[in-house]
Fold Glucose-6-phosphate 1-dehydrogenase.
Amino acid sequence: MSDPQNGWVNPLRSDIDKRLPRIAGPSGMVIFGVTGDLARKKLLPAIYDLANRGLLPAGFTLIGFGRREWSKEEFTEYVRAAVEEGARTKFHQSVWERLAEGMNFAQGNFDDDEAFDKLAAMLAEMDAHRGTGGNWGFYLSIPPNSFADVCHQLERTGMAKATEESWRRVIIEKPFGQDEESAKELNNIVNAVFPEESVFRIDHYLGKETVQNILALRFANQLFDPLWTSQYIEQVQITMAEDIGLGGRAGYYDGIGAARDVIQNHLLQLLALIAMDEPVSFSPDQLRMEKVKVLRATHPVYPLDETTARGQYTAGWQGSEKVVGLREEEGFDPQSNTETYAALTLEVQNRRWAGVPFYLRSGKRLGRRVTEIALIFKNAPHLPFDASDISALGNNAVVIRVQPDEGVLMRFGSKVPGTEMEVRDVNMDFSYSEAFTEESPEAYERLILDALLAESSLFPTNEEVELSWQILDPILDFWAEDGRPDEYKAGTWGPESGDQMLARNGHAWRRP
Ligand code: BG6
């Protein structure tokens, strides 16, 4: 399925990775929003990690664009601090020096023609002196309301234009809009300048090893997928719990909330990978076609007042730390109805999944940080035991632990040693850290490398983004009418309404 001779290497085949290291060709990257949190904590460290792993080309060039009056040296110092603080791999002076040689800073605002003219001249100069070959990625780590300005400038100055020999790509960060309509507008803005095959939308969950492993688990084995249907599975629970609060992100989060922040993208992508049919191959088109099919079949379950829940955290304890409630967080409007916990019930209306509830939940300041997908099986149709023998037997489950303690757990019943036939739940646990010596790369390492290589499998298409909003929009509209979210104490597992949502179906959240 890979065709290395013609330059296409299947990015999901790690055996091929080993034979042919996937090294980016001559190229450079311009980061807009380089002084932001994301660039400092994730992008810059990931670029260093790639360089350190030998996966960037020798002349790789990194240009920061921002408002600050920085010299090239000041920018380089800033990157160095970010790398020392956030890189996953060891700091090597020689790697750093080589990377730093290719750094530069362009100062200006997004509506400043002169600044973009200078940037275009800088790119041309870099092409001439550093062998970047005219290949540039533009990373928009900026709020979506600035996309139009930047795309317009990239078009006006000709920077967006690829040639026969060189490529130009845009890499964009969420939020991809606030609803389906605004997502379409954003897609139109971007697609008017960059053709869809040059647009790389980041959903960093797809860059995580454990998320890619969903494909391996399902399609490299005979053990699981035959059972992956409504015939055997009773319910699917997807949980993304965080213990952190808003911590300085009130400006971004207020008005966005948990559903728009992570369910529209990360959790629906997890759902798509779990529920989709087997793709013909892992080529970008085939993989994304299967995801689109399953997203198209996914809908909220009604009535929404019973099948959804949302909440805001109040003051409480996070471990041994006393924490404030959402409304006391700095910069947060105390009157805001923005939710920090969201739970939804969805169904996938196709032959494989009809009747199986997919419960999705995410929240800040919950009991602990954990992301997992639990497939919970129906009871065996007949249990030839006395009721007392199986009183401690629950449902079988396959649990994919996305993070932390990455791995897969299977829960099933087993006989308790002794003279009685007593059956109790036990866990069989696969853990990445025990099974492999290799450490998993950070999601952004994988995704930046893939964007430089034009490997688009792990990037959602505009269609996936719009379909995800279609699923969410009716729920967001309902919440907008419904008034205030419920409350939950920081450090707990969310509002009672989140538990009731499942209890109505005789189900309960797994305690991760
Ligand atoms: C981001 C959200 O997409 O994901 C954040 O905007 C959230 O609110 C973060 O904290 C969580 O990412 P991870 O990789 O730590 O689970």
Summary: The chain is about 35% helix and 20% strand. Residues 11-173 form a domain with the Rossmann fold fold (CATH 3.40.50.720). The mean pLDDT is 93. The pocket of 6-O-phosphono-beta-D-glucopyranose is lined by residues 242, 261-262, 371 (CB under 6 Å).
